[in-house]
Amino acid sequence: MRHRLSDRDLAVLGALQRVRLLSVRQLQRLFFVDGSPSARTRRAQLLMTRLTKLGVVVRFSRVIGGIRAGSSGYIYGLSGLGQAVINADGPAGGKRRRTWETKPYFQDHMLEVSELYVQLVEQHWAGHGELLAFDSEPSAWRHFTGPGGELVVVKPDAYIRLGTAALENSTFLEVDLSTETLPTIQRKSQRYIDYWRSGVEQQRRGVFPKVLWLVKDEHRQERIDGVIRKLAHDAHALFETGLLGTGGRLLGGFASGSAA
Questions:
Q1: Which helix (H) or strand (E) holds 30?
Q2: Strand partners, 161
Q3: Is the pLDDT of residue 260 over 90?
Q4: Alpha-carbon dihedral angle through residues 43, 45, 51, 53, given to the nearest 10 degrees
Q5: Which of 21, 113, 142, 239 is a good FRET partner for 170, with 20 to 30 A between their CA atoms?
Q6: Which whole-number Å values give the CA distances from 149 to 27, 145, 146, 247, in the listed order?
Q7: Cβ-Cβ contacts under 8 Å for 86 (sequence gap 6 or more)
């Protein structure tokens, strides 16, 4: 099967492995940058139809944007065969699965993470920072020993490294679609603080990344800011909040991680 795929085909599979889900419009922005918008979308549709027929990707039943969106609203993920072609394991390193199709909320969540990845690639092409790493979950997860000796897992939606001028910026991303309670947000934030205090990340990489919460609206941003203010004062600088759609610009403006 690898011999039947072009370099672009393999790059598409690699992108799907990196972020798990991509829409046709996102794929068009990543792999078809020449020509009119309609021509680029049509070429992306043709490519994904062919990869679907080959069995290396799965087209989800849900369409983004409703019926009027047509095939431009399709969502794609890797099939088990696609994972095998690029020597990839399933989620969290587990068994390869036929598809990663999930509930609409999780699809929306993953597509927001994918959108930030696409934005950062576009910024990279435009000369606004160098995208050094973008690890989505589960590759972004971190393990450490908690205060009581228990194994603790921190589960950011992505770990991102950007090079800007003479600085290297690192970030743990949390995409919030207003579905989790504020106590859950507080527990997640506290887990980042515990990980910061463990020193594991700083020992491995020299700095502790910023934790960026991206949210849907200003009301939700204010509520999460309120949660952060209730955390230990010395940990406030670990966190930043912003609106979905502005993540690329926010990431480009961060300082190079937090002090150990």
A1: helix 24-31
A2: 133, 170
A3: no
A4: -120
A5: 21
A6: 44, 5, 5, 35
A7: 10, 13, 14, 17, 78
> How many angstroms separate the Cα of 52 from the Cα of each of 39, 111, 213?
20, 19, 34
For residue 211, which of 244, 235, 183 has the smallest C-alpha distance? Answer: 235
Q: Which residue has the tokens 């889900």?
A: 21
**One-letter identity of residue 210:** K
Contact 69, 63 (CB under 8 A): yes
Q: What is the pTM of this model?
A: 0.87
Lookup: tokens for 109: 């969540």
The 10s digit of each residue's pLDDT in 111-162 is 999 999 999 999 989 888 889 999 998 899 999 998 788 899 999 999 999 9
Tokens of 31: 């792999």
Amino acid at 25: R
CA dihedral 50, 54, 55, 57 (to 10 degrees): -40
Residue 201: both structure tokens together: 């990340």
Non-local (6+) Cβ contacts of 233 within 8 A are none
